[in-house]
Amino acid sequence: MTADAHSPDGAAPTAAPSVADGTATDRATGRSTVALSDVPPHSAEFLATVAARELAGRRRVFAGVGLPTLAVDLARRTIDPNVELVYESGVVGAHPEAMAEGIADSVLVSGAEAMLSMDALFGYVLQGGHVDVGFLGAAQVDRIGNINTSVIGDWRRPEVRLPGSGGASDIIASAREIVVVLRRHDPHALPAEVDFCTSPSPARARRQEGFHQPAGAGVTTVITPLGILRRPDRYGELELAAVHPGVTVAEATGNAGWDLRVRADVAETPRPRTEDVRLLREEIDTVRLYLR
Amino acid sequence: MTADAHSPDGAAPTAAPSVADGTATDRATGRSTVALSDVPPHSAEFLATVAARELAGRRRVFAGVGLPTLAVDLARRTIDPNVELVYESGVVGAHPEAMAEGIADSVLVSGAEAMLSMDALFGYVLQGGHVDVGFLGAAQVDRIGNINTSVIGDWRRPEVRLPGSGGASDIIASAREIVVVLRRHDPHALPAEVDFCTSPSPARARRQEGFHQPAGAGVTTVITPLGILRRPDRYGELELAAVHPGVTVAEATGNAGWDLRVRADVAETPRPRTEDVRLLREEIDTVRLYLR
Amino acid sequence: MTGSKVTGSKVTTLREAVAEHVRDGMTVALEGFGHLIPFAAGHEIIRQRRRDLTVCRMTPDILTDQLLVAGCVSRLVASFFASGSAGSLHEIRRRVERHDPAPLETEEYSHYGMYCRYEAGAKRLPFQPLLSYVGSDLPELNPRIRAVESPYGEGKVYVVPPLNPDLTIVHAQRADPEGNTQLWGITGAQAPAAYAASAVIVTVEEVVEPEVVRADPNRTLIPAHAVDVVVEVPGGSHPSYAQGCYDRDSAFYREWTPISRDREAALAWIDEWIHGTADHAAYLAKLGRPRWDGLRVAPAPSGSVSYGRRKG
Amino acid sequence: MTGSKVTGSKVTTLREAVAEHVRDGMTVALEGFGHLIPFAAGHEIIRQRRRDLTVCRMTPDILTDQLLVAGCVSRLVASFFASGSAGSLHEIRRRVERHDPAPLETEEYSHYGMYCRYEAGAKRLPFQPLLSYVGSDLPELNPRIRAVESPYGEGKVYVVPPLNPDLTIVHAQRADPEGNTQLWGITGAQAPAAYAASAVIVTVEEVVEPEVVRADPNRTLIPAHAVDVVVEVPGGSHPSYAQGCYDRDSAFYREWTPISRDREAALAWIDEWIHGTADHAAYLAKLGRPRWDGLRVAPAPSGSVSYGRRKG
């Protein structure tokens, strides 16, 4: 059956049961009703869907630029309509009528619940401890969850000048946890140690003795084109928690920049539903801004 | 002649020439036209009029509670309509349609040019150096211009619990200068040294070595029921600059709590015009809230 | 407040809100700078006979004098110990000057110092610098005001520590049922005091549809995620005022001075006007229609701006 | 800005405003966080061929890339070195990565660190603490980020120093002729950046009567006393946007990436679109009506609230 048949008016079925494990049951018939997509794991559609599932049970999400924008939009349509979107531009409780092209898009402002000053957003909302999960992009994430968004190579004369911190090094200090979406899974993107630490893990912060330690748990989840890495211990290291369909554990570990530990319960990531892909392509990112 | 004849429609003559020296000349006739009032120097009407004249040439005034409210209202009507009123409640550029009963009165808000957050008011406007003169009341002002608005007697068990700082100790640090209106002129109100220093002079601040010194000049002018004291030197002491009509220099110096120096050019304060008194009674403080 | 809130309506009654959230011994901020003072909530605290509260208010005002008369307060954190325009607060003075009927512990700041305490509390900063107090006796009186050396070489500057009340109560013109709160006119310390607290009660003149709030998001100063309870209490600031809704009852402010000067008269006032009324609606009814009519204001519309909608 | 301003209209032309207030070698803040970016003013700086500027902008955006291409900028103080949604700013990357055609000195913060620098500047604080950077390499890269020990015993915290530009330029929806400036939607760092500066130019979509501003004083974020010059420049944020007035020209944002990747193409663009147009009106005319019509937004009224008037 098609997504259209399941949802004849084309609207997203919100809060579908058991989305997280990739299956669902039609309440009326008791039969499994979810058609799964075969978009490849490295596609933006796949990554955004996996990222959206990470928002289950999270109330307030600080969304960055790029894939996170897709993920939070999809999450509100399929996981939990009450996920509250917070943006560093000051928007709180966005209700966008169209996909936001960036964190300062006018559609995030019109109809929002609050448009705060940046001081209130970073000071009260973020430092005040109201953000459950910060959703960040990154060029590199290392073994203990340090993020580099600044430079590749020596920062005095970098090979690549990356965008820099933006709000990232503020967010990592105060959001309860951080989810990172990486577009690559190789030793460059997942080095043992980042070239430059823009946004530190609690383990790295702790080495700065005598400092008031940040409240946030740092990076707990990294979504890559090969799998999902998790870091359950505040001061521990990232471990392979899942591999995407068609990816072997050896591929995932072999393409990390360190000896990536594999969890005993390592799982296979459920595929996106065709409906997720349809929503992303036909309703969310109709101009293919992020679905590149 | 009456004020009504001078101003037949009852409106205040704005920016009348030479108000400061108490006389004025009718441009058409060349004759002196100002009728002077005989309200006593200790009256609120007299003090408010003298205080209003201090605002000549001052652009932005931070007005406190009480007599300063009368003074700034009168100043806008008779000295300079462009005096900009700033209140610690966040009001900037007030255009009250009635006399404000306190610094948080709704009439200060309706029609104001800006209603800022208290952080912007104290941080940007005041600490930022935009206030030309802060207009404060006080229980005591001492020889070098320290202000006490906290307690009379020992602060652990005071004889009189005064209102405390309010914004005063913030204002004195950053307003260019401070004008104080005292309702008494005796050694209690003008002691050699205040019982408690709520709001310090630059001379007292300087004694705290190693501190970032405040930008403000502190108290430059004290208006009392007997005369006007001025402190022209940032680190110097208050001197008798003028006595009110009917007051001798000896009365003014003899009733201060220290050996009050007398300026060589000590003058007699010009009387209020009958029009000033009429405005205060009939248009400004019609309920006699401050004209007690 | 910290932590995630349940979605959906947070609207309840003032009686329930105070019963659930105000406990003896708590530190409670009641903010509103001469405007939107949460009198109705304070009166309900008196009705429910809470004790031993630490009250935080920049300007204690008549509300704190009444809470003191009623025996609810043992400690006061404040920056101005008088009534805005109408002189002394005599219950405060009796307590401080003569320890009559009991001493009152006070912790004292300047206005900006107190505001910065809320700011640091809301932002979870260990301290906030300000330019005040150099040469003042206030830091000696209050050891919580401390000094920090600037690492850029300009010398020392005073700082204040965070203030994090157990509960903050504010009054506003309107909120939606989830707690998105809009206020205009003098906005005081309401927003940082709310964000600094573990729990927040918002009383409003009017609970409005979410669409009303969302039509003008820049007016929301306290978003729903910072609010635990919303209570509709029309006239909830009397004898203070709500910009655009009703004016301050200045006559009451003048009347309070002689009442508070005589402790017996003040106790009698509390008995008659607070314990003698079931709730704020009854208090307003006792006040009478003519007096209320005298506080009405004429409309002065802000005018509407556009936020724009992207064309499909 | 500091110092008193002359009363009366401050309205002038953009050409005169830039000619009078922008000098070679100045530190100029051009603020607007993805919204109300002062493109028209930046383009006029290019037209008048100013040199050796230190540009302060949280998000340099296409505007800074253009100012760099045009040779106006030698130093950049910022917190994000890319275009919001459309990828790299290639002129910045060429300068930093290959010193082509010349190196670019950069001074780098996080967003909140940069914002706090403006805050400290506006408030004349020697420093402002924030909770960021513990464990980050940013303080090593930028020695202006320093640490202070809390005098309350929670350890050290990072601080940033004040940022006080010689000139701040912002764009807003409206101002009155004296400079009382109102903006809504994303308000960015405009207010603290203005207060931190020695001089302030405000460009607006519309100069309105003082009565319009004074009907809604809570919308005034930058009062007249902080403003030196007011310039009416409709469409002054293109290709950025003005909430409620017109939308972002996202097509242009996408077009800029290939242009800036090719330095010759970027120089040609500057010649054609900036030096080739007499002023912003000519730039918009060259853009053409159909493109502009595509950026129009449908109205979405905020609704009006009342501020109230005391009855005589």
From TrEMBL, chains A, B:
Top-level taxon of origin: Bacteria
Listed EC numbers: 2.8.3.12
Example of a GO MF term: glutaconate CoA-transferase activity
Ranges annotated as spanning the membrane: none
EC supergroup of this enzyme: transferase
Alphabetized UniProt keyword annotations: Transferase
Family: Belongs to the 3-oxoacid CoA-transferase subunit B family.
Protein name per the record: Glutaconate CoA-transferase subunit B
Lineage: Bacteria, Bacillati, Actinomycetota, Actinomycetes, Pseudonocardiales
From TrEMBL, chains C, D:
InterPro entries membership: CoA_trans_fam_I, NagB/RpiA_transferase-like
Keyword Transferase recorded: yes
This protein's UniProt keywords: Transferase
SMART domains linked: CoA_trans
Coiled-coil ranges per UniProt: none
Cited Pfam families: CoA_trans
GO molecular function, one term: glutaconate CoA-transferase activity
Gene3D superfamilies: 3.30.30.40, Glutaconate Coenzyme A-transferase (3.40.1080.10)
EC number: 2.8.3.12
Family (UniProt): Belongs to the 3-oxoacid CoA-transferase subunit B family.
Protein name: Glutaconate CoA-transferase subunit A
